[in-house]
Design brief:
Length: 328
């Protein structure tokens, strides 16, 4: 009966409890910055904040989807840059195709790279974390070779539009798109067979397989979906910054991982919500914004973000350990 009730809810009681800490931290950060700075609540700063968060929030959807099943995928930043570079370098001059064609090209490359990652992990039985670290080097190396030190700034108007345009009410279209995708994925997690299977595999893959869940097929699909979200992240990021270089999204995956864990996703799989990931990445973006507004040295800013990432992972490890002890 409780299970039926949970499936009717967008968020379960456990998910709500896991989101409360990061929601509280986000509210506290907003209140402190609103009092201590004159510009945090300005329209332009809020526009920049949500536009900047959008790319990482979409990347978090893909990363969390794989993490829920108990696997790691840290290739997000590398897939972002390679999907952009691969698409723009392999396509003929843009004027040959209708405006916006490169959007589908970037998504296609992202999906292909996600499928490749999933194939190595699922069918070649390579450890997911190690595979991610190796593929990061390969994907970034390919992007660097294709660019050969050059930068790409020629993009169609629809491509730039997604990352920069705002509505008549002053809300970035990218922020609306991200929130919409987040809600869709939360509904998918809570109310579809794919979401139920992903969570079940994360809790115990052997039991899930015994129950008839096609574990390999499901996990491979999750990697493909992750590649799609990395492609969307690439479009939002490149559209906002207006230039593609080999260093684009460098290190972004670690910040996203921290946001995912802060949002309540367990590193051991089986627990988490996409709305929590949305808030976790938003909180880290606010911290990054605060570092700039308060004129804190970039070195200290990097140190602070490292401490936040370390603390989030440490707390997740302790909570999982306590949960296992309690079951014993």
């Amino acid at each position: 009966m409780e299970r039926i009730k949970e499936k009717k809810q967008l968020l379960t009681d456990k998910e709500i409890r896991s989101i409360l800490p990061v929601a509280g931290l986000t509210v506290c950060a907003i209140l402190i910055l609103a009092v201590s700075t004159d510009t945090f609540l300005s329209r332009q700063n809020l526009l920049n904040l949500f536009a900047k968060a959008a790319s990482s929030q979409v990347m978090a959807l893909g990363m969390a989807l794989v993490l829920l099943s108990g696997y790691f995928d840290l290739t997000g930043g590398a897939v972002v840059v390679l999907s952009l570079v691969g698409c723009f370098r392999m396509l003929p001059p843009l004027h040959i195709f209708p405006a916006g064609t490169e959007i589908f090209g970037v998504l296609a490359v992202g999906i292909l790279l996600g499928a490749l990652s999933g194939t190595f992990v699922v069918y070649c039985k390579m450890p997911s974390l190690l595979t991610s670290l190796v593929l990061i080097q390969i994907f970034r190396g390919l992007a660097f070779k294709l660019l050969e030190g050059d930068k790409i700034s020629e993009m169609s108007r629809p491509f730039r539009w997604i990352g920069t345009v705002v509505t008549s009410g002053g809300i970035p279209v990218a922020a609306i798109l991200v929130l919409l995708l987040t809600v869709i994925m939360q509904v998918t997690l809570q109310k579809t067979v794919l979401g139920y299977h992903a969570r079940g595999i994360g809790v115990n893959a052997e039991i899930a397989e015994t129950a008839g869940v096609p574990v390999k097929k499901v996990v491979w699909k999750l990697y493909v979906f992750a590649g799609f979200f990395y492609g969307v992240s690439a479009i939002l990021l490149a559209g906002r910054v207006g230039v593609i270089s080999s260093s684009l999204a460098d290190g972004q995956e670690m910040r996203v991982l921290a946001g995912v864990v802060l949002g309540g996703c367990s590193l051991s799989g089986g627990k988490g919500s996409f709305l929590g990931c949305y808030l976790g990445v938003l909180f880290l973006t606010i911290i990054d914004n605060a570092i700039n507004l308060l004129n804190i040295s970039s070195y200290w800013g990097q140190f602070l973000q490292g401490i936040i990432i370390f603390t989030a992972i440490w707390l997740d490890t302790r909570i999982n350990y306590a949960g296992r002890r309690k079951r014993i």
